[in-house]
Amino acid sequence: MKIIVAADKNWGIGKDNKLLVSIPADMKMFRHGESAWNKENRFTGWTDVDLTEKGIAEANKAGELLKENGFNFDKAYTSYLKRAVKTLNCALDKLDQDWIPVEKTWRLNEKHYGALQGLNKTETAAQYGDERVLVWRRSYDVAPHALSEDDSRNPRFEVRYKEVPDAELPRTESLKETIDRIMPYWKCIIFPNLKTADQLLVVAHGNSLRGIIKHLKHISDEDIVNLNLPTAVPYVFEFDDDLNLVNDYFLGDPEEIKKLMEAVANQGKREVGS
To answer: C-alpha dihedral over 141, 217, 43, 231, to 10 degrees?
Structure first.
């Protein structure tokens, strides 16, 4: 049994007791492809930005890689955000599996970056320092400043969330709060389906996938800051018949994946000389 998950530039897929994550795979997981604000190095969060041409190409490449490795999915999961939805659609098209059931949920959305959403990461680091931006981006229990109730970016104004109780809609989130949002869906919906499905695909976002990976690999609150997921690289998690995690690995060239992970880590740093 496998699952693959992916994120907006990250995503995942799963097969034969496997879960893949790409941040957006599993479990195979991987992240969605490059979005417009990924390209501009902006904090995105719940802002619904589209994929770039590069992001579409990354999603297509991920789908082709999954097809080459023989993945055939029973069901897919993704967020309410178009960069993840379109990444999933591109991958399924390359897999010739557009017909499989797809379930969308707000619980797989990216971490909400509050008032940081839309700001350039490098410029923010120049103003507040690399260390502070790293805390906002990657720490476990520190959230950015929240959106005000009358801010037009507040999710309570969006029709896509009309069925979600206002008390559950974030104005900002730490990674801990993001995980608290995701885990009920993971434990009650996705994970139980591994008992009956051979392969599952999850396409989501960097921090929503980091939350799932933290849970699966028992990563400490302190060490999770060092986990950087490359975009559109399938990450496979393999489980035994009792659904114990037995193996996990990225699909692709290890050296190329290492470079992509380093690029993610450097997104929130000041430019030399700034």
So the answer is: 170
Cα–Cα distance list, 254 to 5, 185, 201, 219 (Å): 19, 31, 22, 22
Specify whether 145 is catalytic.
no
pLDDT band at 133 (very low <50, low <70, confident <90, very high): confident
| pLDDT one-digit tens code per residue, 41-81 | 898 999 999 999 999 999 999 999 999 999 999 999 999 99
Domains of the chain: 2-268 (3.40.50.1240)
Lowest mean pLDDT among 30-34, 43-47, 212-216, 218-222: 30-34
Cβ-based neighbours of 83, under 8 Å, separated by 6 or more? 8, 9, 32, 33, 35, 48, 49, 50, 51, 55
188 CB-near residues (< 8 Å, 6+ apart): none
| φ and ψ of 151, to 5 deg | -70, 135
Tens digits of per-residue pLDDT, 1-50? 666 655 554 444 344 555 554 433 346 787 888 898 888 889 899 999 99
Burial of residue 176, with CB atoms counted within 10 A of its CB: 0-12 exposed, 13-18 middle, 19 or more buried: middle
Name the catalytic one among 32, 34, 58, 112.
32
4, 218 in Cβ contact below 8 A? no
Catalytic residue among 58, 110, 173, 238: 110
